Amino acid sequence: MKKTKKLMLLLLAPSGYLIFFLSSFIPHTVEKVYSNFIFKGIAGIFTILTGYIPVSFGEIIIILLFLFLLVKFILLLVRIIKKPSTAFKVLGNTLLNILVIFSIAYFSFMLLWGLNYQRLPFSEIANLDISPATTRELADVCENLLAEANKLRELVNEDERGVMALSSDINTTLKRAYMGYENAEKIYPVLKGRYGRPKGVISSEILSSLGITGVYSVFTGEANINISAPPASIPFTTCHEIAHQMGFSREDEANFIAYIACKYHPDADFQYSGIFMALRYASNALYRHDKEQYQALLEKYSDKILRDSKAISEYWKQYESPVQDISSSINDAYLKSNMQSEGIKSYGKMVDLLIAEYRKK
């Protein structure tokens, strides 16, 4: 490829960001034209191409890409060692090629999914009141979630440690996730849509070391799930990634939608996972704002829920490392680059939606 053509391709990245920035001024148009028309067409094509493949096509591509880059790096070193005089030219061409690939990838990302960040807020679409809440409202939501969690916990399976276990094998569990959305769309019609089956990731342990529970693969349209994570969180994570697959990019909204899909699921393990994870988000918020009420709430947790909470904490504690900190920083930067100004803190906004749902009831 000639340098002139490469330099022209470099313009795709700023063009993509310009489209993204300008779209922030027309969320109604983005919602109607892109999210509910263009993206739904894209998602439908991905469902046909990758939705019925039992393994993650995106994961395979990443593994092959890693091997390809490793080989290219070795060949680059060999070339420089053989002809040191060409090192500057070779490195310059390599850097230009990397920038071209990044530019194409970023522009494609925006067209395939990224513009969903500029759609209308889910609260507006679903007519939910997210006006500022009192601590009393937050405490009431926590009490309500805990009562449901205590009741549902009696209906789910346990392993030999007394920790929540899924009612089916992991592949069947992932396949069952759609049932929650079929029921949820009757309450929230915007959740109606087509999506491919969620995929368990072979390299789940690597995701755990990075502190990641699931990944939406933009370029293959797949919901990828870390199946090594504690069972209590897997149904919730699966529904979260499906929410991304349906075009809900914002993390706080995907969390709330996952809770809704789990809540209306016919199976107790999904219901419990959604309520349990929502309780964790809400109670963490209560702890930050009123430690006394949080302690009073904690005394009402059943021993079984406490065991599940401890199992999750112990699981993620074993992966704490600088690598996970770096991964978190990268994720934070990614969210901020897509105009989620609070970065990873935006996950806390899910609580506003939980309170809004409670108000509506």
TrEMBL record:
Return the InterPro entries for the record: DUF3810 (IPR024294)
Keyword set, alphabetical order:
Membrane, Transmembrane, Transmembrane helix
Can you tell me where the transmembrane regions are?
7-27, 60-82, 94-115
Domain of life, source organism: Bacteria
What is the designated name of this protein? DUF3810 domain-containing protein
